[in-house]
Write a structure and sequence with these properties.
3-stranded antiparallel β-sheet
């Protein structure tokens, strides 16, 4: 069980195996990725950074985001989410945004949406 100061919940990583990637599929949004992360993913995929950027990134709000793909009946998914295996295909080098889920600022005091999406979230008992 993982805990982080300031959050009213814990996270059970083993739940990821049964969830099917709910955090990677849904409404369209941004999957922010930094320059060092871009370089790491490009190296992992054994391709030049320029080719990686051209094929897998969009520029939004003066930053870079991984592209998304439309998934029939499910919304959108990260381009690196394998919809057949229901796993991240770049898991070992995934961006910080993905590595830090579910400990995002937006969920600090509002766990309602989070608990509906993620079976690994265990909300603390209130006294």
């Amino acid at each position: 069980m993982i805990r982080q100061d300031g959050y009213e919940f814990s996270f059970l990583p083993s739940a990821c195996e049964s969830c099917g990637g709910a955090c990677c599929i849904g409404e369209s949004g941004y999957i922010w990725i930094s320059r060092p992360e871009i370089e790491a993913v490009a190296e992992y995929l054994q391709m030049p950074v320029e080719e990686f950027a051209q094929n897998y990134l969009i520029r939004a709000k003066n930053r870079y985001s991984l592209r998304e793909v439309k998934v029939e009946g499910m919304g959108y998914a990260c381009i690196f989410f394998d919809t057949q295996k229901r796993l991240c295909s770049i898991y070992n080098v995934r961006p910080k945004q993905c590595r830090t889920f579910p400990f995002w600022e937006q969920f600090k005091n509002d766990t309602k949406e989070l608990t509906q999406e993620c079976p690994g979230v265990v909300v603390d008992e209130k006294d």
